[in-house]
Write a structure and sequence with these properties.
Number of helices: 3
Largest sheet: none
Oligomer: single chain
Strand content: under 5%
Structural class: mainly alpha
Order of helices and strands: HHH
Distance between the termini: 58 Å
């Protein structure tokens, strides 16, 4: 099954483009494949973060001030 592709213009910093071009040659891949993989990885990481937030939503929260006081009390800061 062939995936439909969508054309997009992406502006990269020159150093990043050059590094991607070298990586594409080294891995016998294309810039598009490398970018798709990186975006997919980033979105997967975001999905994991959101799932963790949802899982921990019912946990009690701590005020930052209380955390600092506790660290100071224990001699950590």
């Amino acid at each position: 099954m062939k995936t439909a592709l969508q054309r997009a213009t992406v502006y990269l910093e020159p150093d990043l483009q050059r590094a991607l071009q070298f990586k594409a040659v080294e891995t016998e891949s294309t810039l598009s494949a490398l970018i798709n993989s990186a975006v997919r990885w980033s979105l997967r990481e975001d999905a994991e973060d959101l799932a963790a937030f949802e899982h921990r939503a019912k946990e009690p929260t701590l005020a930052f001030e209380d955390v600092l006081k506790d660290l100071k009390r224990r001699g950590k800061i």
